[in-house]
């Protein structure tokens, strides 16, 4: 490959608009990879925490003792444990106040658990919308850089008497680099968004099932 057509040389000698497009795409790519690794860590931790809590919850132990253990462990419990804590706390509060209607206590606990569930899903979905935006817009940003570079290359032909491939090749090459970087930024973001959206949906279903199962347990305790 000629040294005049190396990627570094082409980028450094590209037009300011193409250089700006490439810089934006590189920034988007670096940002998306940072978000991808962050979501990977958060979602793996959420799945692990859900598995651990379900093991403790369905072990047959006393729920009041489990609640006290969770309260002692941390003030920032997240995931299924936070949903359990919100529901049990509200149920105990209503029972302490002497509510006579069992279903009112159960519905109050369910509302608290739903609020906690929605808060947890929002936490898990953090950055996903940004990944979707990067995945959907990066190819078009790269295409804009490509069109601009090719337009400049053909405009330059108007100033010469004889057009040759050597005259337009660098401009077209630098333009195609913008498209390549746009795809490089978009593809991982799209793949990660689809994967993590599915993971969040599966966790949301687990949380939702737990809310219904725990509400049934609380209903039995309320009428006992």
Overview of this structure, please?
The chain has helices at residues 7-12, 16-57, 63-73, 80-96, 102-124, 128-156, 165-223. It is an all-alpha fold. It has one domain. The radius of gyration is 28 Å and the shape is rod-shaped. It starts with 6 loop residues before the first helix and ends with a helix.
Q: What descriptive keywords fit this protein?
A:
mainly alpha, rod-shaped
Indicate the radius of gyration in whole angstroms.
28 Å
**Helix-strand makeup class:** mainly alpha
Instruction: Please state the overall shape, judged from the principal axes of the Cα atoms.
Output: rod-shaped
Largest sheet: none
Strand fraction band? under 5%
Distance between the termini: 82 Å
- N-to-C series of helices and strands: HHHHHHH
**Any idea how many domains?**
1
Helix content: over 70%
Summarize model confidence as the mean pLDDT. Answer: 87
Quaternary organization: single chain
Total beta strands: 0
Query: Stretches where pLDDT falls below 50 for ≥5 residues?
Result: none
Q: Helix count?
A: 7
Any chance you could write out the topology, listing elements then pairs?
Layout: H1 7-12, H2 16-57, H3 63-73, H4 80-96, H5 102-124, H6 128-156, H7 165-223
Helix pairs in contact: 2-6, 2-7, 3-4, 4-5, 4-7, 5-7, 6-7
């Amino acid at each position: 490959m000629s040294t005049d057509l190396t990627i570094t040389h082409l980028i450094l000698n590209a037009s300011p608009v193409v250089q700006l497009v490439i810089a934006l795409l590189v920034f988007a790519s670096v940002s998306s990879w940072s978000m991808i690794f962050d979501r990977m860590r958060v979602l793996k931790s959420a799945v692990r925490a859900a598995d651990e809590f379900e093991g403790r919850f369905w072990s047959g132990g006393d729920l009041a003792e489990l609640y006290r253990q969770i309260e002692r462990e941390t003030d920032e419990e997240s995931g299924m444990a936070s949903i359990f804590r919100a529901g049990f706390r509200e149920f105990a509060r209503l029972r302490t106040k002497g509510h006579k209607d069992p279903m009112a206590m159960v519905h109050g606990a369910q509302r608290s658990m739903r609020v906690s569930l929605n808060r947890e899903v929002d936490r898990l979905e953090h950055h996903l919308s940004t990944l979707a935006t990067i995945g959907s817009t990066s190819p078009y940003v790269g295409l804009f850089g490509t069109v601009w570079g090719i337009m400049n290359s053909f405009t330059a032909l108007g100033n010469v008497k004889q057009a040759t491939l050597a005259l337009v090749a660098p401009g077209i090459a630098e333009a195609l680099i913008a498209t390549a970087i746009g795809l490089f930024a978009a593809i991982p973001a799209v793949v990660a968004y689809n994967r993590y959206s599915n993971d969040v949906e599966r966790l949301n279903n687990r949380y939702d099932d737990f809310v219904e199962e725990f509400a049934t347990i609380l209903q039995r305790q309320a009428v006992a």
